[in-house]
Amino acid sequence: MKNFFTSLLGSFLGAIIALVVVALIIVGVVASAVSGVLKSKDKVETVTENSVLHLRFDKKIVERSGKNPFENFSFSSFSSEPPLGLNDILADLEKAKTDSKIKGIYLDLSSVASGMATLEEIRNALLEFKKSQKFIYSYGENYTQGSYYLASVSDKIFLNPAGGMEWKGLGAQIMFFKGLLDKLEISAQIFRHGRYKSAVEPFDLDKMSKDNREQTLTYVSSLWNHILEGVSAQREIPVGLLNRMADSLLVQGAEDAKKFKLVDELSYQDEVYAAINKKLNRKENDQINFQTLEAYHKAAGGAKTDSWSKNKIAIVYAVGQIESGEGDDKTIGSERISRAIREARLDSHVKAIVLRVNSPGGSALASDVIWREMVIAKKSKPVIVSMGDVAASGGYYISCPADRIFAEPNTITGSIGVFGILPNLQKLFNNKLGITIDTVKTNHHADIGTPFRPVSADESKYILSGIQRVYSEFITKVGAGRKMDTSAVNAIGQGRVWSGVDAKSIGLVDEIGGIHEAVAYAAKQAKMDKYGILSLPKQKDPLSAFFNDLALDEQSRIMQQVLGPQFEQYRNLRAILNCRGIQARMPFDLIFQ
């Protein structure tokens, strides 16, 4: 008995000590993060004269800045680096255009971590900035194609003499898992409607189907042609020569880049600083008043629009995979987004709604729930869609009721098709693990959908009819929203993916443009000159978001460090494997490097 009480007391004390340690860690984390936030706020109070914006885009750019100061908190450094959203980046560049204290922009580029449409919006904002006659200089130790596309707007492009740049064209790779599944004796039972609906192919094939290869080449070529035209216009290099450089790998080093006039100067960073000082009419070694975009955002006050205006435009951010439930800032929860659209519709001060979509799709049912709110909202006020990097499948489903759809030329959209996957693990359990499953059921098909046996012919027919029914509803709703005949939607549907520029030519998109153009159009439709912006859904309070997301963010960070460039493939594979019900989604995201 004595040992029992000793053991019990020891366990109790151990639990108390553990709780205290955990509490101290949490307090330390919060204190450290808050301290970092306070320090960052104190770091820049005003924008000094003769300042130069120092821009880097090496971290993934989110759609809107978060309110959580603990976002991206790292246990290894006990610091936090909340990302600045595209909304604030664009607003700050617009502000800097007329800010007399900002004399120019220094693009510090080697790589960019963003989708292609996001990059396009920033590039267009830089082109607008140039209209102020202020300078843009860029420097890179190495330029990827993505960072060079951004740098191509510059007045002068500098490249490290020992550096280099990629110029090779665009490619798309898909990882296939059928061989692995075969070794594990797992069969993927595929149900889909749409000959181009390729999300299921990695589980059923060992290479791209003919249809998938055709559609992929079409939209990748469209994206590449847009890049060529943009670079050609800014650098005055013929498109044909740019293509020949890529085909023949003519750009192998810094000297080649200068020879073909892709860059202006081969310079080290100190020499670039000297060139900036010369532009500012200062001495060569003077200290430059660099302002990071984050510091400028805090000092300059962000957006130019009248946020106190009585009349408002609501921007509803729909970002990530579409699923039922609440979701968060990184996933589209049908309840949360529907509630946000409904809130905007019922708010008498909101005169128009802009749905900002950046999503590869997801649950067909969840997409339909959001679609319904869009249809209702459209009856009472203008509803505009602005597409980001991806607005495909379910992302297009929720967009199609809008009065007007805006997309960038390199937005990935379309993918009007649906699918479902049922894994059959019977042989894996029986032959590999020695596990057998026995079942008792009241009716013949009571266990339909179980992963421990194959579906029967009748069940397969039943499931496929559901897939076909959802597809029929999908193209009918697209037809109604786009004022197109259902047969015409079916012809350009079938799960096929399109670039934004091609989507416009076939009627899936109305205008080429970004979020600014969509908001301006919404204001025009609502007959407003002055308006404020209401961002929805409302973001979680920082402390709540911190405790909810901390473990998940740290796990994601560790996986990124382990997997490196393969992390995105892992994340997309996990998303598809976690799918429930009929899906309307793309198989992958494109990242422009």
Provide an overview of this structure.
- The chain has 593 residues and is α/β, with parallel strands linked by helices.
- The protein has three domains: 1-43; 46-167 and 251-300, 2-enoyl-CoA Hydratase, Chain A, domain 1, CATH 3.90.226.10; 312-585, Alpha-Beta Complex (2-enoyl-CoA Hydratase, Chain A, domain 1), CATH 3.90.226.
- Helix 4 (145-151) links the parallel strand 3 and strand 4.
- Helix 2 runs parallel beside helix 3 (116-130), helix 2 (86-98) packs across helix 11 and helix 16 (457-482) packs across helix 17 (486-492).
- The longest helix is centred in the N-terminal third of the chain and has 42 residues, at 2-43.
- The radius of gyration is 27 Å and the shape is globular.
Summarize the structure.
With 593 residues, the protein is α/β, with parallel strands linked by helices. The model is unreliable at 37-44 (pLDDT under 50).
Q: What can be said about the biggest beta sheet?
A: 8 strands, mixed
What is the domain total for the residues? 3
User: Termini, distance in Å?
Assistant: 68 Å
Q: Bin the helical content.
A: 40-55%
Into which percentage range does the β-strand content fall? Answer: 15-25%
Q: Helix- and strand-based class?
A: alpha/beta
**Low-confidence regions:** 37-44
